[in-house]
Amino acid sequence: MLFKVEMDVKVPLDYDVDHFADLKRKELERFQELQKVGTWRHIWRVVGLYSNISIFDVTSSSELHDVLISLPLYPFMEVRVTALCRHPSSIHDDDR
Ligand SMILES: O=C(O)CC1=CCC(=O)O1
Fold first, then answer.
1. What ipTM was estimated for this complex?
2. Which residues contact 12 (CB under 8 A, 6 or more apart)?
């Protein structure tokens, strides 16, 4: 199952810089793991914002929920999820 996930990262201005750098390093590690196994299929930066638009490939909405709340930066994110399904005109086999 494919989902579009929009993530806005919102960091309080007075948050400890070193602690946040550590969370970003952990987020990168988790992101790379999920990308390697194909769960986090695509990511784009939203120009001018600390936001991304991503495509996740998971077996269920529960799996997506568990993945999202496991992200180190999750406590600082506003997340919007959109379920996707194959377009009947698509020529691609892997977009379902
Ligand atoms: O930078 C972001 O948008 C948050 C994030 C997602 C994966 C990652 O490494 O950082």
1. 0.94
2. none
Query: Would you tell me how many other CB atoms lie within 10 Å of the CB of residue 88?
Result: 5
Could you read off the pLDDT of 15-34 as tens digits, one per residue?
999 999 999 999 999 999 99
Beta strands in 1-96 (DSSP E): 2-9, 40-45, 51-57, 77-84
pTM of the model: 0.94
Q: Which domains does the chain have, with CATH numbers?
A: 2-84 (3.30.70.1060)
Pocket around ligand 1 at a 6 A CB cut-off: 7, 9, 27-28, 31, 52, 73
> Cβ contacts of residue 11 below 8 Å, gap of 6+?
20, 50, 76
Between CA 71 and CA 67 the distance in angstroms is 7
